[in-house]
Amino acid sequence: DILFEPVRIGPVTARNRFYQVPHCNGMGHQNPRMLAEMRRVKAEGGWAVVATEQVEIHPTTDVSPYMEGRLWDDADIPALAAMADAVHAHNSLAAIELCHNSIYSSNLTSREVPLAPSHWPTKMGYPASARAMDKQDIRDLRRWHRNAALRAKKAGFDIVYVYAGHDLTIFQHFLSRRFNQRTDEYGGSLENRVRLLRETIEDTKDAVGDRCAIAVRLAVDEMLGDDGLTHEGEGHDVVAMLAELPDLWDVNISDWPNDSVTARFGEEGAQEPYIRFVKKLTTKPVVGVGRYTSPDAMVRVIRQGIMDMIGAARPSIADPFLPVKIEQGRMEDIRECIGCNICVSGDYLKVPMRCTQNPTLGEEWRRGWHPETIAPAPARESVLVVGSGPAGLEAACALGQRGYDVSLAEERQQLGGRLTLECQLPGLASYARVRDWRLGQITKLPNVSLYPASRMTADDVLAFGANHVVLATGSYWRRSGIGPNIDIPVRGLDSGPLFTPDDFLLGQLTPAALPAGPIVIFDDDHYYMGGILAEMCARAGRDTVLVTPVGEASQWTVNTMEQARIQAQLIELGVTIRPHRTMQSRAANRLDLTCVYTARVEPIECGALVLVTSRLPEEALALELAGRRNEWADAGLSSVNTIGDALAPGIIAAAVWSGHRYARELGETIDRDAVNFKREVVKVVVE
Ligand code: ADP
Ligand code: SF4
C-alpha cells in the first residue's frame, strides 16, 4: 500500500510512487507517434509520472545523429503534446527533461558553434571545439531554457526538468571544476559555479511554476573522486545549497554507464549509498533509480527514507505494467529487467530501442502490439513448438495466451536453450529471468504442455498430428573461423586442440581441463561471449590471449555501456589483448596472426584455440521437413516455420521477438509484399 500513496510535487500530485524517469529510446523527434504510444502504455501500466528523454532546447544543442527529443521552437510542440496527452489519458503526470548539452552537442545539423563554460573540445567524436560563453551567451541560454519551459507548458507537461546529470549537460559542466575554468561570478567558488543552475531553476519556476512542478536531475557523484562532484563533497553541498528550491530532486550518479550499470557489473539498488543523503537535506520529494524490480526492495527504500518515489527506466521498459501488477498482488507476473542494456544499444545505434524481456517494446504503435493483451486465435488449432530457448518459449507462451493448443518439445532435460546454458557464465545469472518468466506464465496455461527430454525427428513431428509446427532449434558455433572479418576458412585450424563456446556451454569443458600452453581466444563475434571466456580462463589461472580483428575486447558492448568495464577487467586479470589481428594459419601449437592493416605475420604459441566467431542455424530438422512436404497434408500439418537462432543466429532479444512475432501472426493473413508496420512518413507540403 505504501507504494500506492499519492505524492505531492509542487503544484501537481502523482497518483502513486512509481516514476518513469527520463530515458532515451532512439525514437526521439523522428518517431513521435511510436514514442507517444510507448509512453502511453507505461501510464496505462500504472506509472504515475512518465517522462520524456532529454529534449534539446535550442539549435546550439543539437545532438544529432542521436535521436532525442527536440523543442527548438513552436513547430516542435505538437509531437511532444502527443506524448503528454497520451500520458494524461491515464491520469498520470507527463514530465519533460529539457537539456542543453554543451560539449556533448555535435551541432552537425544546425552547424552552430557549441557553447560551454570554458573553451573545450567537444566530446561527440568530431574534431570540433565549444567556445567559452560570455555574459550575453549566459543570458541567451537562460532565455532559451525559459522559452522551452513555456513551450513545454503549452504542450501540456506537468513537470519540467532542469537537467544537470550524466556528465552531459551544461548545468553540470558549470558545476564542475574540470569544465568550468571561469574567473567571473559563474566560476571559481562552488557558490559561483552553482549560480547558473540556481538562476535557471528560478527562471523556470517563474515561467511555469504556477502550473508545473520543477524537477532538478542532478549527478550527486561523478565517481571521479576529488576531481568531480562527490556525495560527500561538492555533490552534497550543491543539494544543501539548493535544497528547497526545486519541487523534486531526481538524483543519480554520473556518467550514464555508472547510472545504468548492467547486471554483469552492478546489483539492484547499487546507487543507494550515493543518494541516501539527499532526503536528509530537503523536504522535497526525492526520486532515484536502481533497476528495482522487487516490490520488497521498493518498500524498503521508501521506509528507510532513501527516496519518496521509485524511479525506473529499464524496469519500466521490461515491464510497462509493473506498478499495476504490484497493486494487484501479481508479483509472479512481473517481467523483470535482466540488466542487459540492449535497450541502451538503441540509443547508441540511433534506432528505436528494443528490449530483451519485452518484445512489444517499440511495436506498440507501429504493429499495435500491447504488452498485456494479445488477440485470441482465429481457430482452436494445435501448434508443436520444437526447442525451448528464448524463441521457442516466447512463441509457446504467446501462442498459449492466444488460446492455441501448444506442445513444446525440448531435447534437453532442462528447458531454456541458450538461456539455461549462458546464465551459468560469470555475470549472466539474470539472463535466466527470460526463461523463468515465460515458464511461470506457461504454467498458468492449461493449453500448453511441456515435453522436456524429447528430441524430435522429422518422423516424430509428422506423427505428432499438430496443425502447425514451429522450429526453434537454435544454433551452434562455427569451427571454421568464418566470421565478420574472416571469409575464407583458416588453414590448419584443427591441427591443434580447437574449441568453441559450445564445448564450454554444452560439453561442460572447464578452462582447467584445456591442454597445456597459452589459451588463445579468437573473438570475431565482439559481443559478450569472447570476453567472458577470456575472463573465465584467466580466473582459472591460465595464460590467456584474446585476439580480435577490431580495436577492443568485446567491442560491440560499447553499445551496452559495458566495454570499458570488460576491457579493464581483462587487463586486471592479466589477459593479453591482441587487437587488430586476424588468423592466417595454424600448425599444431603455432598460430600465425596477421595485422589487419599491414598483413605482417606474427607467430604466437597456442596450446588451445577457442573460436568465438559466428554461429550457424540448427536447421537439419527444418530441411528434412521441407523435403517431405508432400507428407504434410496426410499428417494434418498445414504450416512449418522456423524462428529465432534456427532461422538466423542473433542476440537473445531478436530470438524473443521472433517467437513473439510468430505467435502474433499465426492465423493472420500476412501480405509478404507490404511493409507490415506503420511508419512515420514525412508529409511534404508544397507551398
Ligand atoms: P533460440 O535462441 O532461437 O531460442 P536456443 O539455442 O536457445 O535457440 O534453443 C534451441 C533449443 O532447441 C535448445 O534447447 C535445443 O536443445 C533444442 N532443440 C534443437 N533441436 C531439437 C530437436 N530436434 N528436438 C527438440 N529440441 C531441439
Ligand atoms: Fe532490461 Fe535488457 Fe530490457 Fe533494457 S533491454 S529493459 S536492460 S531487459
Describe this entry's structure for a reader.
- With 687 residues, the chain is of the alpha/beta class.
- Helix 1 runs parallel beside helix 2, helix 3 (135-155) packs parallel to helix 5 (190-208) and helix 19 (528-539) runs parallel beside helix 20 (563-572).
- The chain is globular.
- The relative contact order is 0.09.
- The protein binds adenosine-5'-diphosphate and iron/sulfur cluster.
Portion of residues within helices: 25-40%
Strand fraction equals 15-25%
Shape: globular
Tell me about the biggest sheet? 8 strands, parallel, barrel
Radius of gyration: 27 Å
* Average pLDDT reading: 97
Low-confidence segments, ≥5 residues, pLDDT <50?
A: none
How many helices? The count is 22
